[in-house]
């Protein structure tokens, strides 16, 4: 087995030693800011599979997102059955929100992809791979250059997390009516 397979198995099995190290890690992350730039990925196997390369112009960011339901402001007057519950049910997932917030903090960059790194009772953390739009090494790379041609990937739901929220994980037979998205076709997807 290669190195990345060992790292992947460590994250899958999570033995006692790994869990103790991860708990210490989460306590330090809780004290940090919600958006923080990091030197290298925590899960190198996941980052590499999602397009990360250790080169100039590729930026790693750890983003913290609050867990729990998103609440409406308090109901003041009138009884309308559709508006009588306070919890909002949104189609966006935490990962997509984390990508958008990281992109707001780094407006000169484009979101390539992201992955989950941890959660506790209050927060969830994701690491986001960002590409610097103006960096010469990124503009030279044919794959990264092609990704930069489509701007606003995090906001338009083109990243993997965004595609999941739009119901675009299915392909082929039986998935004809989910393009361009569930909501565009009146929720015909199964």
Quick overview of this protein structure:
The protein has helices spanning 3-13, 16-31, 44-49, 94-105, 136-140, 142-148, 153-156, 160-165; strands at 35-38, 58-66, 70-71, 87-88, 109-119, 123-132.
Question: Would you mind describing this structure in some detail?
Answer:
The protein has a 4-stranded antiparallel beta sheet. A two-stranded antiparallel ribbon has the order 3-4. The chain is an alpha+beta fold and 190 residues long. It is 35% helix and 20% strand. It has helices spanning 3-13, 16-31, 44-49, 94-105, 136-140, 142-148, 153-156, 160-165, and strands at residues 35-38, 58-66, 70-71, 87-88, 109-119, 123-132. It has a domain at 3-134: 3-Layer(aba) Sandwich (Ribosomal protein L15e). 22% of the residues are buried.
